[in-house]
Every structure is written in structure tokens, then in C-alpha cells.
Amino acid sequence: MRCLLVRCGDPDPAVEETHGCYARWFREALDPTVSLTVVDARREGPTARHLEGVGAVLVSGSPESVYDPLPWVPAWAGFVREVVCARGVAFLGVCFGHQLLAHALGGEVTRNPLGREMGTVSLELTERGRGSALFRGITGVPRVQVTHRDTVLRPPPGAELLAVSAGDRCQAFRVGTAYGVQFHPEVTAAVLRSYVESRRAVLRAEGLDPDAVSASIETASDGPRVLGNFVREAFGRG
After folding, report:
1. Among 3, 19, 64, 186, the one annotated catalytic
2. What does the alpha-carbon distance between residue 114 and residue 151 come to, in Å, rounded to a whole number?
3. Is 186 a catalytic residue?
4. Which of 98, 103, 148, 184 is catalytic?
5. Among 8, 20, 10, residue whose Cα is nearest residue 191
6. Which of 42, 48, 133, 134 counts the most CB atoms within 10 A of its CB?
7. What are the phi and psi torsion angles at 53 (to 5°)?
8. Sign (positive/negative) of CA torsion 11, 216, 207, 68?
9. How many whole angstroms separate alpha carbon 105 and alpha carbon 80?
């Protein structure tokens, strides 16, 4: 089972020093039978060879915003359209990847009018979400790790909204063979607490209490379960 991971950024330096890069987080969260090939979107443009032998595509988070004039975003947005609309390859966009999926397919991404969302939060599944393979096996209220300032204000045309939270009204959606999730299924509680420590000054400047945010963080198994559900669906093992 081979997946392509499109890496769109790096963690805060203090977080990376302790916990490694995004690719490491995905490798540790995925089943060990999954083979992960990584491409850095900022340093390499998309080509047809990136999809050779690939059964699924993952797009990571990033400290960047898709609506900023980043020189590498248009090419990779085109790649997303090729993957989802032309080839029908299984696709999962996480945080920035979720926003890139929406941006590429005609949705709208903006700074979240509800402010920064950070910590372990509860998801409210829509009717579509409750029946979605992405959330199969999750009982009760899903709990997931989040850290973001941007949001998908308007999903792409034809998308199915799957989940929302108190701090974000588009936590997950599906369009065709693609899913976008605003939350981080690959992030552990330890990684998220490290982010809080590295961003204490930023959080205070935004009127948030870093200690309260840190206290909200708990171990949550639903995110990794979502990642596993995606892989099982992508490779016909659901």
C-alpha cells in the first residue's frame, strides 16, 4: 500500500527538534504496512511520476496560507485537481491540505472569523458524517487535535460537509474521492503541547491563555482512527 505524502511545511523549530518533521508524524500514525513516499511541495513541482504506483495521496499541514501569493501553490493546486477530478485517486488533505483541496476545487479559504482553534476539541458529525467511512468505528463524540488560524469558509461545489466544531464550521468534507480534514489525525497530545510551548507569546498576543490551551489537550485516538479508515477505504480494505 503506497501513499504519496505532499509535505507543505515544517513544524516550529523547537517542536521539530523534539518530535521530528511532518513525515515522521504521519509514518508513526499510519499502519506500518503503508509505504510512504514524501515530496516537498516548496522545493519540487508536481510531475506525473509522483503518481506512479501510488494508491493514495496525503497533503500535510503548513504554517502558510493558501490564499497568500506563494509561488508553489498554483502548481500543486493543479495537481490536486488532476488527482481528484481527472484520475479519481484517493486523497486526504490535512489542515493546510484540507484548505488546498477546497481552494483547488472552487471553495473559499480565509482567516477563521472565530479565531485560532488549538487544543483537543469535540467534533459534531453531520448526517453525512455519521454515515461516512472516514468516521467508521468511532462511537460517541469524536475528539481530535487541532491547531489552525485559517478555515474553509465555503467548501467546494458539490462537497458533502461531514463534521464541524465549536471553533470551525468545516472540520471535514468530502468531494468525489477526496476528503479534507481541518483537524490533525497525525498529531499526538505531546506534539500539540510542544506547539503551545513554542507559541506562548503568540497565544498571549491573541488574547489566549497558553496554560488553559495546554490543559485542554488530551490523548485522543479518534484522529489516528480516521487516518486508518482513510487508508482502508483507499486500498479497498474497509
Report:
1. 186
2. 9
3. yes
4. 184
5. 20
6. 134
7. 70, 10
8. positive
9. 8
Q: Structural domains in the chain?
A: 2-234 (3.40.50.880)
Looking at 64, 95, 170, 233, which residue is catalytic? 95
How many other CB atoms are found less than 10 A from the CB of residue 143?
A: 17
Write the single-letter amino acid at 27: R
Is 8 catalytic? The answer is: no
Q: Give the separation between CA 84 and CA 82, rounded to whole angstroms.
A: 6
Per the CB < 8 A criterion, the answer to whether 151 and 110 are in contact is yes
Question: In tens digits, what is the pLDDT along the chain, a chain of 238 residues?
Answer: 899 999 999 999 999 999 999 999 999 999 999 999 999 999 999 999 999 999 999 999 999 999 999 999 999 999 999 999 999 999 999 999 999 999 999 999 999 999 999 999 999 999 999 999 999 999 899 999 999 999 999 999 999 999 999 999 999 999 999 999 999 999 999 999 999 999 999 999 999 999 999 999 999 999 999 999 999 999 986 5
